[in-house]
Amino acid sequence: MTVSGLPELMTVLACAVLVIGLSAHLLVADLFRRIISLNVASGGVMMLLLVLAVRGPGDQDPDPVPQALVLTGIVIMAAVTGLALALARRVEDPADEDDRDEETP
C-alpha cells in the first residue's frame, strides 16, 4: 500500500469505528456499556476529523483547526464521560442511597 492510499483507508476505519459505536449504543441495554459505546463513536468522529485535516499529498502541514477541535473534544469527552458515569451509577443503584440515609444518625 502506498502512502497516497492511507487517508482513504483511515477514512474507512474511522467510519467503521463510528458505526460500531453507534450500533452498540442502539443495541445494548446496560447504561455503562452505552456510555462506553458513545465514547467509541466519538473516537471515530475524532479520527475522521484528523483524516480530514490532511491537506493533500506531499510534505504539507495538516490543517491545525481540526486538530484543535479534536483536542478540545477529547477534553470535553473526558469530562462528560465522568459526569455520565457518576449519574449512571446513581440511577442504577438508588437502593444504596436509601440504605445510607437510614444508617446515619
Automatic annotation (TrEMBL):
Where is this gene product found? Cell membrane
In which broad location class does this protein mainly occur, judging by the first location in its UniProt entry?
Answer: membrane
InterPro entries from the UniProt entry: CPA3_antiporter_subunitC, NUOK/Mnh_C1-like
Q: Which UniProt keywords apply?
A: Cell membrane, Membrane, Transmembrane, Transmembrane helix
Record carries keyword Thylakoid: no
How does it sit in the bilayer? Multi-pass membrane protein
Describe the family membership recorded for this protein in Swiss-Prot or TrEMBL: Belongs to the CPA3 antiporters (TC 2.A.63) subunit C family.
Q: What is this protein called?
A: Multisubunit sodium/proton antiporter MrpC subunit
Per the UniProt entry, what species is this protein from, by scientific name? Sediminivirga luteola
Lineage here is: Bacteria, Bacillati, Actinomycetota, Actinomycetes, Micrococcales
